[in-house]
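REQUEST ID: PR-0412
SUBMITTED BY: lab tech R.K.
PRIORITY: routine
TASK: structure prediction, single protein chain
INPUT:
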Amino acid sequence: MARKVLAVVFVVAVFSFLFTTSGAAEVIKIKFANYMPIMHTNTIVMGKFCDEVNKKLAGKVEITQYPAGTLLKAPQMAAGVASGVADMGLAHCSYSRGRFPVMELTELPLGASSSFILTHVINDFYDKFKPKEWDAYHPLIFSASTPSTIQTLKKPVKTLEDLKGMKIRGTGRSGDVVKALGATTTPIEMMDMYESLKRGVIDGNMGPYEQLKSFRTGEVLKYHSVAWQAGSGYTFYVIFNKNKWNKLPKEAQKVIDETAKSYIDIWAVEWNKTDLDGKEFFEKQGGQTIPIPDAEIQRWVKAVQPVIDDYKKDMVAKGFKAAEVDSWIKFIKERITYWKEQEKTRKIPTAYQ
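STATUS: complete
OUTPUT:
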């Protein structure tokens, strides 16, 4: 009898172990690569997104974020997600120029004055036009930094002439803007910029207020020239490996998509706050904000117009019709006007009033 009891107990234990092991194996693990620093707003916001998804899909899906380039660095992000090194990834289009040519349009100097505005505009643009360049992935959400402007180490920039001979960091289409303004473009990965500035490898950066605190560059940069009208924002993306996405249960896909959509506005508002934090940090370090007079601003805007013209030529050469590109630009400008009014109506603080 004792042997029979022991046998029954053994069988029950085995089945319990197998059941438990099987249940644990059903949890789908998602690796989310992010090159941004651990305490950057983007990492914090995406951490909250992961927590929310993990809570909603407890026992089914678990997303783990790998920040600070621990899984993939920014220039390798798009290729790394496509190949499955990471299941999800966050970076911006300028780090892989030419891979997302249509979406590079949203990195042109088209007149958005804040992250809040540009983030909403970019998501509107994707939802309407669905560029095929993203078909290799499942895009979840897009976002944007505030349009960049000139930040310098030693020499304040007040006119276009001041930029002659200066080496300014810029990547992708932002680098084109730097060149159009008369400086020499130096593409340096963001994580390397602090040391490059400190060692005098470059004279400055084309960037938003946000970077001054997030990447501590406000400790070395001394001048921030306010000319956002001629600046371009960086278009950030959060994308999913297509094969991994297709293997997810439909319920999980729905939850992740819906949660991502709810974070568009959250992320947009947080970007604006981060810009204001960067401005405050910069000024506490003794940094000077230099307002550029309207007449000079118009010179800057005119100087960067060829960047927009060249983009249009590039896209026509790729097989798009000129009228189609014009329709994209028209749509973006209309949405900028709309979201600028929304920002004002909702009284969302912004660095550029």
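NOTES: Confidence is low (pLDDT under 50) at residues 1-23.
REVIEWED BY: pending
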